[in-house]
């Protein structure tokens, strides 16, 4: 899936430029009684277009890492570079703008806005970025692609779990973000529905050419990824690139 | 393509959000509507009334200009008024006085307010409507009367019958259904009897010194300058009240302004409570929306964008509430004339005043926005990471952050208070009132919050330690008060403010009337006699003494009208006097007393010896007059009367029991000092109530021109007026209770989903509807009881302070009112609570459990 660039003079393949780069990232939380070190120094680079799965037991720091990648939380030390831009020093509002432009999200519990219809939910990121009108048709197309063209005016409460997650997928892609972050996207769905949602996610990811970072407990889900990064006690325990990847 | 306006996008998202939760916002809208409604209603009616006063000013005065005086005109005044006739100015005279009307020898006479007019000239503007329809000129023959329907009813007479006034028969010729200048009249205590001036001459009621108001009505030719005529009249009527149609009626206008200010401030209380409710509802709403807000932040929304969405949403709700409030206000505006119809007959009052509506809307909107800013600012603190791990959103705060966080609500509170103060200052047109109002509101809120917090804390401890025998309903009902998101404290406080306010007004009103009745000392007269001539005073006294049922000796006092010319050589000029002292620049009532009158205490100097006849008159001055005029023992006061001028020396300063007849006189002279001056005598006697009609009848038979006032009837009149005023105030302050109830309903509706879940779980576990209903009822009942107890206790305290400290009455705390408040508020809370949540009881467990 990832394109390696060949340098003609030497023939030595060099990796494509990293869209996500993490430099010695740590995150500690001080509680009144003690200090919790969630991430203890992570170094990671994810090239453009790569599908990386982050695995690990509960409490290993997966969701924290995902949150820091999206600028949803502040790192204690270290850097997160998205497309070469260090986001660790950005203000909350600057970070929100970066998210609006570069990041799509898919959550385990769908996180649709209950008061908006399916179509309005999909269109919301575009509207927040001030490009709602241009993307109205794209929102409908995406809903059509995920098989919900008949459910445009339905509210989340009127949709099944699988349908809600499909709306969330369409929403994640509406602004054509270069990065898609997914947190256990099939965790709340039964096996069959989960499989359908996963297939849709991978298909959209392929069509849109997005870099996908997916947090999961499920080895079967991770098996679809180009790369599997396993965290344990706040550190990278293993980082496995599939055989056909460089 | 150009980016759409961020406000447009925010408005679009706000609309979608509101559309999906319209039911929840109903209470927010109602809370705003209650406050805006009362404010708009009060100010709208005030403006409309003012417009009517201006529009129909000539009609209300029945003239272009009027002069009112309580004396018959002297030669100079008559000459000036006659000279105006040469300029084309027409004039007519109206005399108003109180007297007795007798239906016949077998029944007690009735106190009536006589208005004697010249039917050929009166009224210059407007019409007197009669039933049967007729012309005043033909109806008011010298032996005929036009009367209000009350006279017919009270005297049990019909048109065509005869009554006696001043001992002479008068035919009841017509019923008055409308009198244009009724509200500008002078003596409106008794029921209206209108007669011609020739009729008044027949009765002989008016003699020098009589208690009568003379009103001169003028009609000016269109070319004549109002100011010029007024200036001429001012030269000779120094004591008269001159008014012209350009200023309508200054006293009514002043009363209108003061009432509007007071009622506007009462409305502002309702609005503030409503705004507090909106802030509570918005805070609850935002708490439920935390996840959605975090999601929006994840999707790229900045805090300012989200703030804009909810600000627009709040403004929209405030706007809708305000518009409904304007509709409510126009209903309130329609109700006011009903309250006033007994005293003022105003027709065609505009039902809508655009400026007041706009002002009400703006004040409502601004108040709501300001009160909701603190919860809205909380949006900035919602971290998008909430979606992943809630604990990640709560890192340890530095001291600086903690201080910043703590300072924010303090600054918000100060800004809100300043704003409320500004609004109050604007409504009252007085910066000091605005300041006091803001501090009073802050004080009341803090006091109520503390009391509410303490009561709810205590209740929690009680609830946790209840014995098993108390039953699960009681325990769970109390525990429900502390359910997350249940703003019991806010609901209790909001309801408590309304109760406190309304109840304080009620207790003060009741306390005042009770105080008037209770503090009357034993033997205080309950029947007063006015306008007794010097010739008949002894005969009246003798007749009084012979009456049955007397509970003390009759009192009688003579009074002469005189004017103070100078005090210690300094001329007494009205313009140089301040405040209350100005009244001594007018004619005052003086008397003689050979010995110290009963119930009088000499504060300084000494009363003269009995039968003393000093060459220069000596006098004792009442303590209040002495203070205001800076008079002391040894001061020289020069007097003038139409008959002669004379000087006097102050030998004593005295104090009278205020309820005694002698307290009406502030200047007592040595015997003989007032000889030769026309005196009118007043009498007072205490009689058992059942003997009063007989006494009135006997006096009328022998002395038909003597006016007999039964205090019981006067108290009834006072009670009527006080009731009428307090009904208006209670009506407006009721809006604050309404706002409180709306907040309770909003709080209950805000926890609807939690309630549904509870109902479902309880039903699944085998609880019957009745049992669940009992649990909720306990919760609502406790909220109402605590609010009623808290508001009631504070009201009893405030009212006690107002009555005993401010009004110097002697009223004990009114605990009956407290009991009524607790019961009433508990009932209101139960009804409101169920109105907002009755549907939860009908939920089928399976639907909810399956959804989960």
General description of the model:
The complex is a heterodimer of chains A (246) and B (852). By secondary structure, chain A is an alpha/beta fold. Chain A has a single domain (49-71, 90-241), classed as 3-Layer(aba) Sandwich (Rossmann fold). Helix content of chain A is 32%, strand content 28%. In chain A, strands 8-9-10-5-11-12 form a 6-stranded mixed β-sheet. A 4-stranded antiparallel β-sheet of chain A has the order 4-3-6-7, covered by helices on one side. In chain A, strands 1-2 form a two-stranded antiparallel sheet. In chain A, helix 3 runs antiparallel to helix 4 (132-145) and helix 4 packs across helix 5 (161-173). Chain A is globular and about 50 Å long. Chain B is of the alpha+beta class and 852 residues long. Among the domains of chain B are: 57-252, no CATH class; 466-520 and 712-852, no CATH class; 553-685, no CATH class. A 6-stranded mixed beta barrel of chain B has the order 2-3-8-5-7-6. Chain B has a 6-stranded mixed beta barrel with strand order 12-14-19-16-18-17. In chain B, helix 2 (22-55) packs antiparallel against helix 9, helix 4 runs antiparallel to helix 8 (226-236) and helix 20 packs parallel to helix 23 (815-837). Chain B is elongated. Chain B starts with 5 loop residues before the first helix and ends with a helix. The mean pLDDT of chain B is 81. The chains are: A alpha/beta (246), B alpha+beta (852). The A-B interface holds A 29-32, 63-64, 66-67, 70, 72-73, 92-93, 96-97, 99-101, 103, 105, 107, 111-117, 120, 124-125, 127-134, 155, 157, 171, 175, 183 and B 1, 3-4, 6, 9, 12-13, 16-17, 19-21, 291-292, 295-305, 383-385, 387-389, 391-392, 395-396, 851.
Number of domains of chain A: 1
| Strand residues, percent of chain A | 25-35%
Tell me which oligomeric state these chains represent: heterodimer
- Please tell me what the overall shape of chain A is: globular
Outline of chain B, from the CA principal axes?
elongated
Largest binding interface between chains: A-B, 44 and 36 residues
The percent range for strand residues of chain B is 15-25%
By CATH, the superfamily of chain A comes out as P-loop containing nucleotide triphosphate hydrolases
Mean pLDDT of chain B: 81
The N- to C-terminal Cα distance of chain B equals 44 Å
**Which CATH architecture of chain A would you pick?**
3-Layer(aba) Sandwich
* CATH domain class name of chain A: Alpha Beta
């Amino acid at each position: 899936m990832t394109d390696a660039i060949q340098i003609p003079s030497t023939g030595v393949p060099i990796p494509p430029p990293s869209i996500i780069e993490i430099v010695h990232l740590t995150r500690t939380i001080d509680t009144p009684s003690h200090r919790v070190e969630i991430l203890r120094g992570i170094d990671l680079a994810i090239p453009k277009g790569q599908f990386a799965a982050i695995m690990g037991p509960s409490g290993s720091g997966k969701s924290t890492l995902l949150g820091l990648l999206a600028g949803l939380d502040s790192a204690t030390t270290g850097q997160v570079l998205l497309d070469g831009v260090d986001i660790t020093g950005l203000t909350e509002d600057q970070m929100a703008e970066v998210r609006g432009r570069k990041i799509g999200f898919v959550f385990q519990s769908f996180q649709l806005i209950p008061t908006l219809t399916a179509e309005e939910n999909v269109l919301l990121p575009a509207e927040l970025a001030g490009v709602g009108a241009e993307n109205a048709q794209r929102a409908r197309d995406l809903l059509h692609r995920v098989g919900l063209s008949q459910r445009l005016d339905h509210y989340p409460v009127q949709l099944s779990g699988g349908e809600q997650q499909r709306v969330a997928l369409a929403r994640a892609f509406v602004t054509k973000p270069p990065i898609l972050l997914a947190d256990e996207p099939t965790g709340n769905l039964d096996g069959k529905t989960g499989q359908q949602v996963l297939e849709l996610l991978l298909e959209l990811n392929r069509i849109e050419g997005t870099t996908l970072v997916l947090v999961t407990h499920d080895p079967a889900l991770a098996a679809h990824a180009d790369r599997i990064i396993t965290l344990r006690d706040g550190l990278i325990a293993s980082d496995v690139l599939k055989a056909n990847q460089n | 393509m150009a980016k759409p306006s961020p406000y447009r996008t925010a408005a679009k998202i706000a609309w979608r959000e509101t559309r999906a939760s319209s039911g929840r916002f109903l209470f927010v809208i109602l809370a705003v509507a209650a406050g805006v409604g009362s404010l708009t209603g009060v100010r709208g009616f005030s403006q409309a009334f003012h417009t009517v006063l201006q529009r129909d000013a000539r009609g209300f005065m029945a003239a272009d200009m009027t002069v009112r005086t309580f004396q018959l005109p002297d030669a100079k005044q008559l000459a000036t008024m006659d000279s105006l006739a040469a300029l084309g100015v027409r004039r007519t005279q109206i005399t108003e006085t109180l007297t007795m009307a007798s239906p016949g020898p077998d029944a007690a006479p009735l106190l009536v307010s006589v208005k004697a007019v010249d039917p050929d000239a009166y009224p210059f503007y407007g019409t007197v409507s009669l039933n049967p329809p007729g012309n005043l000129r033909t109806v008011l023959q010298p032996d005929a009367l036009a009367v209000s329907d009350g006279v017919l009813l009270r005297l049990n007479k019909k048109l065509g019958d005869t009554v006696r006034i001043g001992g002479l028969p008068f035919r009841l010729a017509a019923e008055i259904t409308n009198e244009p200048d009724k509200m500008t009249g002078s003596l409106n205590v008794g029921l209206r009897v209108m007669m011609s001036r020739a009729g008044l001459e027949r009765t002989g009621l008016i003699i020098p010194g009589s208690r009568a108001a003379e009103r001169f009505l003028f009609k000016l030719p269109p070319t004549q300058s109002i100011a010029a005529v007024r200036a001429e009249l001012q030269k000779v009527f120094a004591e008269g009240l001159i008014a012209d149609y350009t200023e309508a009626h200054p006293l009514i206008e002043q009363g209108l302004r003061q009432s509007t200010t007071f009622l506007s401030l009462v409305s502002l209380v309702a609005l503030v409570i409503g705004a507090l409710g909106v802030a509570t509802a918005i805070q609850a709403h935002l708490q439920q929306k935390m996840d959605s807000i975090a999601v929006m932040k994840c999707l790229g929304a900045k805090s300012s964008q989200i703030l804009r969405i909810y600000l627009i949403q709040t403004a929209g709700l405030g706007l809708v509430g305000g518009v409904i409030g304007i509709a409510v206000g126009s209903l309130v505006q329609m109700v006011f004339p009903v309250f006033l119809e007994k005293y003022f007959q105003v027709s065609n009052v505009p039902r809508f005043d655009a400026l007041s509506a706009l002002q009400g809307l703006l004040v409502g909107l601004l108040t709501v926005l300001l009160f909701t800013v603190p919860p809205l600012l909380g949006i900035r603190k919602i971290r998008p990471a909430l979606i992943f791990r809630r604990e990640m959103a709560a890192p340890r705060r530095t001291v600086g952050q903690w201080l910043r966080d703590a300072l924010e609500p303090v600054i918000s509170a100060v800004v809100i208070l300043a704003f409320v103060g500004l609004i109050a200052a604007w409504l009252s047109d007085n910066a000091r009132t605005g300041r006091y109002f803001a501090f009073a509101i802050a004080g009341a809120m803090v006091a109520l919050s503390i009391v509410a917090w303490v009561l709810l804390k205590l209740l929690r401890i009680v609830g946790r330690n209840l014995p098993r025998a108390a039953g699960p309903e009681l325990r769970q009902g109390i525990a429900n008060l502390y359910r997350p998101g249940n703003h019991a404290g806010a609901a209790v406080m909001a309801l408590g403010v309304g109760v406190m306010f309304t109840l304080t007004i009620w207790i003060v009103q009741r306390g005042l009337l009770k105080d008037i009745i209770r503090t009357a000392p034993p033997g205080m007269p309950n029947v007063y006699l006015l306008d007794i001539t010097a010739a008949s005073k002894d005969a009246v006294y003798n007749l009084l003494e012979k009456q049955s049922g007397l509970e003390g000796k009759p009192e009688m006092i003579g009074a002469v009208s005189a004017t103070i010319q100078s005090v210690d050589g300094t001329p007494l000029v009205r313009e140089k006097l301040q405040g209350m002292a100005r009244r001594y620049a007018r004619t005052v009532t003086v008397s003689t007393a050979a010995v110290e009158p009963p119930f009088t205490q000499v504060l300084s100097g000494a009363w003269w010896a009995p039968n003393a006849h000093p060459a220069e008159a000596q006098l004792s001055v009442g303590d209040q007059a002495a203070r205001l005029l800076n008079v002391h023992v040894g001061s020289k006061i020069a007097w003038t009367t139409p008959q002669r001028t004379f000087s006097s020396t102050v030998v004593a300063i005295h104090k009278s029991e205020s309820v005694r007849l002698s307290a009406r006189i502030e200047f007592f002279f040595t015997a003989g000092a007032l000889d030769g001056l026309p005196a009118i005598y007043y009498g007072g006697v205490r009689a058992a109530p059942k003997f009063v009609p007989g006494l009135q009848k006997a006096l009328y038979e022998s002395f038909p021109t003597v006016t007999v006032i039964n205090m019981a009837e006067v108290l009834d009149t006072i009670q009527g007026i006080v009731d009428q005023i307090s009904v208006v105030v209670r009506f407006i302050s009721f809006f604050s209770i309404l706002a409180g109830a709306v907040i309770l309903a909003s709080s209950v509706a805000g926890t609807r989903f939690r309630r549904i879940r509870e109902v479902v779980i309880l039903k699944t576990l085998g609880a019957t509807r009745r049992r669940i209903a009992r649990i909720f009822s306990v919760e609502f009942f406790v909220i109402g009881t605590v609010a009623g107890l808290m508001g009631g206790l504070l009201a009893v305290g405030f009212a006690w302070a107002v009555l005993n400290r401010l009004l110097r009455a002697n009223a004990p705390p009114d605990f009956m009112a407290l009991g009524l408040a607790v019961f009433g508020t508990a009932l209101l809370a139960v009804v409101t609570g169920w109105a907002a949540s009755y549907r939860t009881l009908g939920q089928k467990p399976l639907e909810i459990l399956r959804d989960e």
